[in-house]
Amino acid sequence: MEPNWDDLRAFLAVAEEESLSAAGRKLLMDAATVGRRVQRLERDLAAVLFTRSPQGYALTGEGQRLLSHVARAESEMRAGLDAVEGQGAGLSGQIRLGAPDGAANFLLPQVCAAIVEANPDLEVQIVALPRVFNLSKREADMAIGVSPPSAGRLLVSKITDYRLHLAASTEYLRRHGAVRALEDLKGHRMIGYIPDMIFDRELDYLGELGVQRVALASNSVSVQFNWVRQGGGIGVVHDFALPVAPGVRKLLEDKISLSRAFYLIRHEDDRRVERLSRFATLLSEGVRREVARLEALTS
């Protein structure tokens, strides 16, 4: 028997969310209905697609093989709908964007707000998490990363470079003394990432500078930035974040300047989805302009 498309959609949602309840919320149906659709699909295919456990639903080998085909079919369907709706229409529907919290807090709010302003029928969701997103499980429609992934069926394009510097609040420096040389850092309280929670080697800023001890640490760059702003110590700060903190100034600019890049990462199956491609272009252009504008304010 040929599978029902609604059953395949339920399968795809469970594969992405790894639970019936989460898949039900995504599909706007109750978990029991999702479960029945998955069971019917397994019966029609005479295959076990998931391993059930208290931790959730995990794909079996048969499920993994089916997933790539169903995800590709969904992408083709979205591409077809985009073609029918026409390229001249405004963007609509929901797009979920994953991003590290530095970009999510200091760049994406204004960039995405401007895109939605020009496209009133569009809904943008920003998922700010300090980790790498799994686009294969459709955790997001696209993601911004700080290094290009080397594996997976992904479309990767560089958005822009950005700069970072050591920084501290003027109040902290007044209380603890000026920093005129790299050696002076040994006498100051340092702020940075929790060492074993650095999810990308590009974020090991203090390690690159030879700093051994971090007194105040967080896996969130926004928490680190607020510690710096509130006089907690010295940390590495994105230049594009500095305009919102006039009481923070860069240190040792002539000796230490870090450069990193943002990359836009998409699933290869979405290449022909016009709506996502148009949003990706607008997003990349907006982030590029915003980084340049904010960094110019700190020069």
UniProtKB/TrEMBL annotation:
Q: Which GO terms describe its biological process?
A: DNA-templated transcription
- What InterPro entries does the record tag this protein with? LysR-type_TF_proteobact-type (IPR058163), LysR_HTH_N (IPR000847), LysR_subst-bd (IPR005119), WH-like_DNA-bd_sf (IPR036388), WH_DNA-bd_sf (IPR036390)
One Pfam family name is: HTH_1
- PROSITE patterns per the record? HTH_LYSR (PS50931)
The UniProt keyword set, sorted, is: DNA-binding, Transcription, Transcription regulation
HTH lysR-type domain spans which residues? 3-60
One GO molecular-function annotation for this sequence? sequence-specific DNA binding
PANTHER family linked: HTH-TYPE TRANSCRIPTIONAL REGULATOR (PTHR30537), TRANSCRIPTIONAL REGULATORY PROTEIN (PTHR30537:SF3)
State the similarity comment: Belongs to the LysR transcriptional regulatory family.
Its name, as the record gives it, is: LysR family transcriptional regulator
